[in-house]
Amino acid sequence: MKPVTIPTNAASAKTNWNQYSSSRQIQQALNSQTALNGITVAFTTGPTANTSFDVPHTLGRVPVGYHLVKLAAALTIYDGTGATTKSTISLKATVANTEVSIYLF
Fold first, then answer.
1. Using the 8-state DSSP alphabet, how is residue 50 labeled?
2. Strand 39-44 with 99-104, pairing
3. Which one of 8, 41, 71, 85 is least enclosed by Cβ atoms within 10 Å?
4. Residue-number span of the structural domain to which 42 is assigned
5. Percentage of the chain exceeding pLDDT 90
6. Is residue 8 assigned to a domain?
7. Within a domain: residue 63?
């Protein structure tokens, strides 16, 4: 697999995402962008719907947001009431015990 290079100057900042042939290459491209430096985290939602649960992560800093990547069922993920730290994020889900992946940044 060839390395992914993303321009960092403003004149070249527009990226043609069609040039990447795999999701791994897109992930590498996103990670090279300071504003979207992040990780993908897979987890199972808590045992009770609409109740906070903590998801461990290895981002190494307090995350500023997340995007849904994959859902095993129709549900909504939203911010929990617990503390979000350098190693965990607090979330809630409208459906219990469901596999989810998020891009945490």
1. T
2. antiparallel
3. 8
4. 37-104
5. 61
6. no
7. yes
